[in-house]
Design brief:
Helix content is 23%, strand content 37%. It has 286 residues and is an alpha+beta fold. α3 runs antiparallel to α4 (40-54). The longest helix has 15 residues, at 40-54. The radius of gyration is 27 Å and the shape is flat. The protein binds zinc ion. The site of zinc ion has 8 residues, from loops.
Length: 286
């Protein structure tokens, strides 16, 4: 399902974009305008046809940089049968926290399980549509928060992005979606917005596919627990703050100095004050 969405995003749509260009409007104007004289009418028609052949209005979207790697640095298991048992770290509260993370990382789709694991970072994307690229794909002015461990996907602030929306929309529409980041794409197109109208060029932009995530509800948690007990393989990835291994959590590195009794102290380059944020995959077992 997700792969199909990505394909839809990348397929170029020469036809769809041709319909929405200025030429469509021009042709209509020619047709409705009263014919001035018999001599000028065919000439205008001929000229507009010649321009139409010159301008390339195809939209070509190709992957430029693949998905932000979502792989976790470490993994651990959460055993449901140990919840709230003395001597174990599994608690109801921790289960709730992890389930909340799980719910936001699952994409509702047509798979037998009803949802599948998101393959890219999910972010709330606010947008204003700038240009219709055909097939529900749009160039949009967008904003989203930084996501991923150590904010791998930088925040967008009034940033042009490519969006694949669920429902038809039109230029000028604004809205908010849950978007799955599907990597950076190279978009080759002819701009039809000021001040670049008519200019054909390539933009490299972050691309998002609109999606729906699972609802974080008690009923959802119940269903999730039942699925795990029945043997479903489920996992959630969370950002956890852990002590830095390189400096032992001190935040600085000691080096003996020649001819000096005191050690040289260098701030550790791999952490902030001895702490690092790592992405941890928690696998759920019965
Ligand atoms: Zn460190």
């Amino acid at each position: 399902m997700i792969k199909r969405l990505l394909l839809v995003l990348l397929i170029s749509s020469v036809l769809a974009s041709a319909q929405t260009t200025a030429f469509g409007t021009k042709a209509t104007a020619n047709a409705t305008a009263p014919a001035v004289t018999d001599a000028t009418a065919p000439a205008t028609k001929g000229a507009s046809k010649a321009v139409e052949e010159e301008v390339d209005n195809s939209v070509v979207i190709t992957p430029f940089r693949s998905l932000t790697p979502a792989e976790a640095k470490t993994s651990r298991t959460f055993q449901l049968s140990k919840v709230n048992k003395l001597g174990f770290t599994e608690t109801t509260r921790e289960l709730q926290r992890l389930y909340s993370a799980f719910a936001t990382q699952r994409i509702i789709d047509g798979s037998p399980a009803g949802s599948s694991k998101a393959t890219g970072y999910l972010a709330t994307v606010n947008y204003a549509l700038v240009q219709d690229l055909g097939d529900n794909r749009f160039l949009a002015k967008a904003a989203w928060p930084a996501t991923g461990p150590n904010e791998v996907l930088a925040a967008g602030v009034d940033t042009m992005a490519v969006l694949l929306l669920d429902k038809p929309a039109k230029v000028g529409d604004t809205g908010k979606i849950t978007g799955m980041h599907v990597g950076t794409v190279a978009l080759r197109f002819t701009a039809n917005y000021a001040p670049l109208a008519g200019k054909r060029f390539t933009l490299r932009r972050e691309a998002f596919v609109e999606c729906a995530t699972l609802e974080d509800s008690p009923a959802g948690l119940q269903k999730f627990v039942e699925a795990v007990i029945a043997g479903a393989e489920m996992s959630a990835t969370t950002n956890e703050q852990i002590s830095c291994k390189k400096c032992g959590g001190l935040g600085q590195i000691r080096e003996p100095q020649k001819g000096s009794l005191t050690d040289k102290l260098t701030p550790c380059a791999e952490c902030t004050k001895g702490k690092v944020i790592v992405s941890v995959e928690t696998k759920f077992v019965p």
